[in-house]
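Quick question, first post here. What does this chain look like in 3D?
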Amino acid sequence: MLLQNYPSKAYWAESIARLGRQANFNARFELDLYRMLQVTGNMEDAGEYVDMASLALNVGLPAEAARVVELAFASGKMGQGSAAVNHQKLRQQIQVRLAEDDKALPGIEKSAKDANTLASLAEVYAAKQNWSQANAFFGRALAMGGLRREAETRLHAGIVLFKLGQKAEAAKMWDSVQGDATAVEFAQLWKIWQAQN
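> Answer (accepted):
Ran it through. Tokens below.
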């Protein structure tokens, strides 16, 4: 209610942190916590950027990791002080992975037959901020059905629709998220954020 009636950066930070501390929080959504912190302007220090980039790298989204790291370098949050060498190493590691992924992508796309692979491709295109490609793959994955993590797919498909400016469709997609309490909570937070932006 506070978020809806008195939206502020601080309330957003508090709500996101509270969600992450819940006993039933699904650790698969840790990257989503950082995405929400970032979109609400609540990424504060180098540690958060490093964590977010590492999480993105671990789930196979080097394009997102690269963007996060470049933002942090540009704003002076990374690349300073005693951690500068480690930051540079992470940056190089991400670039190597990004090049490998870009080479493999066309082959994966050609052979993609099942819903889970299509959903993974959608995630990769979303990480590259290629929203229309991501939307097309999410649409195909959801239409095919049989997804291992449908709640997560619907949550992310909603974010892509929001990025495309299709707000009504995004809200509808978030309303369809069910079966995972963490995903449902994120969907509600995104709906509130969308209504305010």
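The chain has a mean pLDDT of 95.
Residues 84-111 form the longest helix (28 residues).
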